[in-house]
Write a structure and sequence with these properties.
elongated; D-Maltodextrin-Binding Protein, domain 2; nine-stranded mixed sheet; about 25% strand; 3 domains; alpha/beta; Arc Repressor Mutant, subunit A
Length: about 300
């Protein structure tokens, strides 16, 4: 098989149309069609089938596209090995939670735009479980995920994780109720709000797992009545009529009606990671993005 033709197939699996592939690779739809037809001849298997007025990959085509990711990554790694001055080029698909996108991906994208314009990033917002599923399905090249050190996440062995950063978290509560805390430590803070409603995350169980673990240690079962995956919405729920509390980053700037109470002994630390499919991180554009994320 001609590995250059594998690139056409891989881009078709990612973008869904020959016109999009032609635009990405700077060629014509006719060339795309001819190259994939030649690849089908090399493999001896049909790679495309009609889908209305368009075409789609056959099961054999999808399997070959999966192999193409690894094959092309190996070719790129070998090329970079032989010529360390080769400029990385390609599209890196990144998915992850909003804080990591703002904090890590956007600064990296700015560096890429200025110094490595041939490397592009496509960004999608996902919560941790969604990002990992997309990564394993090869819909992403890199997943930005998180857990809390109090309840570490279990990661599929097919995924390699690279630590990015760690943040302390506190308990967001109505500022008018901050005086309720008696004593020191996380359990005293939780105990002070045992009769409040608690806010969890609508798309990730990690926050609620932390809340339930610490509440159990403080001797009560929390009533989780609201779930949100936006920190701004968590704040709005805290300040709305009623009595609600929820986890927030310790360093977060909030309005005067919200107090972020420190939690210590035990502390709550959110840990952010970059996840890649095992063996894929050597692909030069992905390796470059990982290097920028970990700086």
């Amino acid at each position: 098989m001609d590995t250059r033709r594998l690139r056409y197939l891989l881009e078709l699996s990612r973008h869904g149309s020959m016109r999009a592939v032609a635009d990405v690779l700077g060629t014509t739809t006719s060339t795309v069609s001819q190259q994939i037809a030649a690849l089908a001849g090399e493999t001896g298997a049909p790679l495309l089938e009609p889908d209305g007025r368009r075409v789609r990959l056959t099961p054999a085509g999808r399997r070959l596209a999966d192999h193409a990711v690894t094959i092309l990554a190996a070719v790129e790694a070998a090329r970079a090995d032989l010529d360390p001055h080769t400029e990385p080029a390609g599209t890196v698909r990144i998915g992850g939670f909003a804080t990591a996108v703002r904090r890590s991906v956007l600064p990296a994208a700015a560096v890429l735009a200025e110094h490595h314009p041939r490397v592009q990033v496509l960004v999608s917002e996902y919560e941790t479980a969604e990002a990992l599923s997309a990564l394993l399905a090869d819909d992403l090249d890199l997943a930005l995920v998180y857990d809390y050190d109090l309840v570490p996440a279990t990661v599929d062995p097919a995924v390699t994780v690279t630590p990015l950063w760690t943040d302390s978290w506190g308990l967001g509560a109505p500022a008018a109720d901050a005086h309720r805390v008696r004593g020191k430590g996380t359990l005293a803070v939780f105990d002070a709000f045992r009769d409040h409603d608690w806010i969890g995350n609508s798309r990730n169980t990690a926050d609620e797992d932390v809340v339930r673990t610490l509440a159990s240690m403080a001797g009560f079962t929390p009533t989780v009545t609201h779930r949100a995956d936006s920190l701004d919405l968590v704040e709005d729920l805290i300040t709305a009529p009623g009595r609600r509390v929820g986890l927030l980053p310790a360093g977060r700037a909030t309005g005067p009606e919200v107090a972020v109470l420190p939690l210590a002994e035990p502390a709550i630390r959110q840990r952010a990671f970059a996840g890649t499919r095992r063996g894929r991180a050597a692909w030069p554009p992905l390796a470059l993005v990982l290097e920028l994320l970990t700086r």
